[in-house]
Specification:
Number of strands: 10
Largest sheet: 6 strands, mixed
Helix content: 25-40%
Order of helices and strands: EEEHEEHEHHHHEHEHEEHHH
Shape: globular
Strand content: 15-25%
Structural class: alpha/beta
Length: about 260
């Protein structure tokens, strides 16, 4: 008799959020939100302004504390930890505006991030090991700035500054990367390179992206979570989301009013 192989249990989510609420002086930015994310996903968060997308990232990285609910990263309840502790657990966050050291070179910016537990000066004067040099080279190529390694970061284009900051997070090798509108303000070719970079990153890490540019989402999203009024409205592939009546209503529901104004 052929023995049947044991059935594989589905992997636990990397992030699991249950009944999350965030209250800002009586305004509920997030209300009763449930959300989960598995390792290796590239998840896009979309929704109208004020839907709670950035607030959700703020909660995951520890910038904002929830009023209610649980926020699990693997087996750790993030609501009990401070921002710096959450970063050490393996969660990297990039905000909308790039924060880089504009007077240092691209390479020095990456070096500082790799050695962030040291002081600024000791990070720059300490000798790099072969392993660190290999790591630096790998991420310089990944973010497309290998040719500009010795260039001062302040002279980079807007898109290149964004890639450098993503590289500064990647070189710390977080397990989860949170990106807030990474393609905002970019040229068409920079936007395309950013989309390709996100796919490269998601081969090794898990990524959540907040994005308003719907063409960018259509071109690069694998799974989409639509938020509305502080909770999850729908989840699925971009195709499923585009064909959903409720999503269309949220995005286009005021169209009639706008038409009436003209």
């Amino acid at each position: 008799m052929i023995e049947s192989s044991p059935r594989k249990e589905p992997a636990s989510p990397l992030v699991n959020i249950e009944q999350l609420e965030v209250d800002f002086d009586g305004f509920k930015a997030i209300r009763g939100l449930n959300f989960s994310l598995h390792s290796g996903e590239l998840r896009f968060l979309i929704g109208p302004n004020g839907a709670g997308k950035t607030t959700l990232l703020d909660v995951i990285c520890g910038k904002v504390k929830p009023s209610k609910g649980k926020v699990w990263f693997k087996n750790t309840d993030l609501s009990k930890h401070q921002e710096h502790q959450i970063a050490q657990l393996g969660i990297g966050r990039k905000f909308q505006a790039p924060s880089i050291f504009v007077t240092l070179t691209v390479q020095e910016n990456l070096l500082l991030s790799m050695r962030q537990r040291r002081g600024l000066l000791s990070s720059l004067v300490a000798k790099t090991t072969p392993e660190q040099r290999d790591r630096m080279k790998y991420y310089l190529h990944m973010i497309g700035l290998a040719e500009k390694a010795k260039q001062v970061a302040g002279s980079l284009s807007h898109g290149e500054k964004q890639w450098l900051e993503i590289g500064m997070l990647l070189i710390q090798e977080p397990e989860l990367l949170l990106l807030d509108e990474p393609a905002a303000g970019m040229t068409d070719s920079e936007t395309e390179k950013t989309g390709e970079l996100l796919h490269k990153i998601s081969d090794r890490q898990t990524v959540i992206v907040v994005e308003h540019d719907m063409e960018f989402v259509r071109n690069y999203a694998k799974t989409v979570t639509v938020m509305h009024e502080g909770t999850v409205l729908r989840e699925g592939t971009m195709q499923e989301i585009q064909n959903d009546d409720k999503v269309a209503e949220v995005y286009l529901g005021r169209r009639g009013e706008r038409d009436a104004d003209h």
